[in-house]
Amino acid sequence: MSGGPAAGRTPGADGLGVLDAFGFEAAAIVLGPEGVRASAGDLEKVRPLRSVSKTLTGFACAIALERGAVALTDPVGPEGSTLRHVLCHASGLFYESDRVLQEPGKRRHYSNRGIDVAALHVARAVGRDFEDWVSGEIAEPLGMERLSWDGPPSVGAFAPLADLALLALELLRPTLLGPEVFAQMTTPQLPGLVGIMPGFGKQDPNPFGLGFEVRGAKSPHWTGTTSSPETFGHFGMLGTALWVDPVADLAAVIGTDHEFCDTHRELLPRLSDDILARWAPPAR
């Protein structure tokens, strides 16, 4: 990956000026298929990814799916729930426990526990510790040398933005997954379900892929007003985010040193819009 300095701005990073308005430490990398387009801030600081961890976990589960180790129809979670249900937050599981709110497939109930149950199922199927599976199948091939874990698969990853950008590049031009499984991972599963988007309230519909959030027509949202409905990624409650807009052929990773708050709700969409205005193709 071509890159910039550990701190400061790369040439032509004027589209990242919104970072200065956060009022606390903030950094970002903008990526096209060829590599880094621009960057600003500290790219080497190791950050808690929190729910951005779900992108790694969903990707690792998708690799097991493509290898034939698991199937989306495997029973996982509450009675009637499958691997697909738990990965797209439709199993009915509570946020962080095995409590069941309602039967699977009826509503999008965002659930860290569901993602963790999915990872446990995959680990058993491949016969490896899940962190080891992520390391061997994603981090090592992509060169994410500083990825580490100190918590469950749903929220426990840590990495600098420079490493997270390597994942974003892979998501722009996949090499570790074939097109069919990649599409399942990054497009709506069980579309049409209503649900609560953490930090943004009720969304109707509330699309999710397999471990990845899909933007759809959600409003309000943490991506931009000009982001395509096909945009996918995740944000974390400790101020880190990753999005890929396949229509614009752009990706971005963002990190701050502050818990998710009203400032993020206001400025993350503005940052996305500025990035798209500056670097998306003119025909967009």
Automatic annotation (TrEMBL):
Domain of life: Bacteria
Alphabetical list of Gene3D superfamilies matching this protein: DD-peptidase/beta-lactamase superfamily (3.40.710.10)
Classification via Pfam families: Beta-lactamase
Domain Beta-lactamase-related residue range list: 48-254
Stored InterPro entries: Beta-lactam-related, Beta-lactam/transpept-like, Diverse_Enzym_Activities
Name of the protein: Beta-lactamase family protein
